[in-house]
Structure formats: structure tokens, C-alpha cells
Amino acid sequence: MAEPTTEGPHNPPSRLFPRVAAMMFLQYWPLGVWAVTVGTYIAANTGEQGEAIFSAGFAGYSTITGAVGSLVAPMVFGFLSDRLLPAERLVALLHLGCAAAAWWMSSCRDELNFFIALLVYWNCFNPACALTNKIALQHLPKPDRQYPHARLFATGGWISAGLFIGLVWPSLSGHSIEDTATPILVGAASNLVMACYALTLPYTRPNPLVGRGRPSLWRDALRLLANRPLVLFLCASAAACLSSMAYNAYANLFLNWAGYSNPAALMTLGQVSDVLCLFALPRLIARFGLRRLFLAGVAAWSVRYGLLTFASATNSHAAVYAAILVHGPCYVFVYVAGLMLVDRLVDPGHRGAAQGLNAAATTGLGHLGGALMAGSAQETFLTPDGVSPPPYHWAEFWGIPALAATAATTLFVAILPKLVSTNPPQHSD
Q1: Which of 4, 6, 229, 379 lies 20 to 30 Å (CA to CA) from residue 419?
Q2: Helical H runs in 56-203?
Q3: How far, in Å, CA of 78 to CA of 127, rounded?
Q4: In angstroms, rounded to a whole number, what is the distance separating the alpha carbons of residues 121 and 125?
């Protein structure tokens, strides 16, 4: 493993981007292999089906493991990367943990062990995501221009993994494996590949600017929490991500209920929008700045749910298509631009811990609260107990996350003047 900095002879800038792009591709490919089909595997073994491993409702409550995996682990491993161990070695260790957890999931024949294995997986995968973001932002010589394009390869990894399981494997073997544990095993092998590749990444030494003395997670956390602009932004980020879970969990159900043909394929228009926004992001940052882009992303969620509410009340197909196509601003301006803004709001010695806190706020607290909000709205407006057939009042259902997104937009407008960067030497906004 090379020892030098990004600018040194061992890591010339011309070679850094391909290495970071490959890292992003390999980071998300293992999850893309099995995350989309695991619900099908669970359904095929629920109740008296298949091996009768899972109980009714397990597919739903198992999703909280992803949010729990963002609450503590990213902060802990971010601290370790800031104070004790190189980030790339931690990424390798975490992907070894992902591989072990995925193998455990594939071999589980009872619900409890599967749930625990899934929890272990997310507590390894989510901090690995935060650390790969840190590595990319620290080593790319022009992160404002290069990081969004590197993230395109993360989307490419996810899409190509799904195509491999959904098209390539069946064409070679003659049968589908989507209702089996095979995709999870393929994911485990892919995690091992990423673990090996992580050891070849540029050396990302713990930053000496953190300070002297015995390393202390508690002290570093207090120092970050004393950063008022960062704390305000994390609160706004958590609020912004509340509304995302309703679309993630219920959009496909809504499209099927409304009679749209090939809903899963129709929803891929959102990924096309993602790609276009990632391509445009460097120029948009230069033109508008990260803070205004984040505000536009939060407002885009309000627009999306307003369109879905209108479509539910009027059966407008155009509104549905527009709601899907706005996915790029919703995702890229909130999740990608947001983590880039976090990198600016802290000093270089706390990048890893700050990215961990960002994960805890967004995919942790934000997604957990959003899942509970969406579940409560489902019980009230879609499938209330004792009502048969279910009423499926979609306009009222989409109105709940619309209000949440509007409140988040208002909150961010209020704190926007207070978000002054503490890290101006390396970036400008």
C-alpha cells in the first residue's frame, strides 16, 4: 500500500479519479446484488411457503436494521479513521464484516438469526459508505468537480448488479434466482472483492490536526456538537430525510394499485434523473453553491409529494411521471450535496466523524423517523385495521410527507444564513 499524499509522486491526480470511481462502483455493487431481491426471498419463505423461515410482516420490520446501522457505527468508525487507523484499512475490515454477515444471512434457517445478521451487515456497510465518502473528498484534487462524477459509478454499480442478477444470471443458467439466497451469497463474494481492493486505495492517514492527547470519541463528539453550523445543518438534514421513506416504500405499491404497466421499469426514470443531476452537479455548485442546491433538493420533495397528491385526486399520469423524474434533485441535492457541505463545515481533522454524524442524522434518525411516519400514515389512510377492502386514500397519505417536506424546507430557509463554512482553505461556496 502506498504511503504518500494525493499530490505526491505515487498518487498523481490523473490516476486518482479512476481509483476513486472504482471504489464507488465496488462499494455499492455488493448491496445492489441482493437488496432489491431480498424481499422476494423473504416472501418465498414466509408462513408455509418455501422453508417457512419468516413470519408475516417480517419483510416490513426488517427494514429498520438499515436505519439502526446508521445511528452509531458510522460515527465510531469515523472517529477511528480520524484518530487511530487509516480509512482504507477500516473499509477493508468493514467489508470483511459485510461478507461474513451476508454468508450468515444466506445460511440462516430461522427469523431471529437472519435479523441479527442483517443488523450486523448494516452496521458494517453504512460506516463503509461514510468512509469511502471521506476518502474520495480528501484525495480528489478537485472534489467539487470530480466527486459528483465519481458518485455516478456508485449508481452504475447498483444498476449493473441488478442487471446481473435479473438478466445475465437467468440467461446463463436458464432460471431465476431472485427468490433464493444465491444473490446474498454473490453479494458476500463481492464484499470480499471490495475488501481486497480497499487495501490498494491511497493511504488516508489519521489527521494530526485533531489534537494531541489520548484519543477520545466523547471529546471529539463534543467538539463537533459545539460546531453550531454543523449541528444546525444536521438537524435540517434529518428533517429533510423524513419524507423520503414514504416514496421509497410505497411508490411501487401506488403505481401497481393505480394500474400502471411495468411499475418497476417506470421507476427507473428516477435513476436516469439521478445520472443527469450528478453530471450537472459540478456546474450547479459553481453557479449556485451547495447551500442553495440543498435547499432546492428539500423543496423538490415537497414538489414530488404535491404532484403525487394531485395525481391521486385527479388520476393525472403527467403528474406521476413528473413525480418520478424529480428524483434526481430529491436525491442528489439532498444526499450527495449534503455530505459535501458537511465536509466544508468541519476542520480536516474531523472529516470521518462528521461524515458519521451525517449518516446518523440522515439514513439513521431521518429514515427511522420517516419509516415510523409512513407506517402510521399507512395504518390511517391506506390499510386501517378492520376495514375490508382497504380504502387506499392515497391523496391523504401523500399529503403527510408533503407537509413534512414543506416544514423541512421552512426550517432550512431559517438556518441558511447561519451555515458559514469553517473549512474555506480547501473549498469555497
Answers
A1: 6
A2: 58-61, 64-68, 73-83, 87-107, 111-139, 143-163, 169-173, 182-198
A3: 7
A4: 6
Buried b / exposed e along 161-182 (16+ C-beta atoms within 10 A) = bbebbbeebeeeeeeebbbbbb
Is the CB of residue 190 less than 8 Å from the CB of residue 16? no
Place of cell 494531541: 212
Q: Which CATH architecture has domain 1-206?
A: Up-down Bundle (1.20)
Note the CATH number of domain 216-418.
1.20.1250.20
Residue type, 54: F
Q: Is the dihedral of CA 420, 290, 226, 244 positive or negative?
A: positive
The CA distance from 421 to 429, in Å, is 8
- Nine-digit cell string for 412: 432550512
Cell triple for 50: 418455501
Which cell numbers hold the place of 343?
A: 465536509
- The DSSP code for 366 is I
Q: Position 346: which residue type? A: V
Please name the residues in contact with 358: beta carbons below 8 A apart, sequence gap of 6 or more.
Answer: 74, 130, 234, 237, 338, 339, 342
Report the predicted TM-score, pTM, of the whole model to 2 decimal places.
0.79
Copy the grid coordinates of residue 288.
449556485
303 within 8 A of 249, measured Cβ to Cβ: no
Write the pLDDT tens digit of every residue in 37-67.
Answer: 787 788 788 777 778 788 866 766 777 888 8
- Residue-wise pLDDT tens digits, 186-242: 999 999 999 999 999 999 888 655 555 555 666 766 778 888 889 999 999 999 999
Q: Report the C-alpha gap between 321 and 338 in whole angstroms.
A: 26
Q: Could you give the residue range(s) of every CATH 1.20.1250.20 domain in the chain?
A: 1-206, 216-418
For residues 75 and 66, give the distance between their C-alpha atoms in angstroms, rounded to a whole number. 15
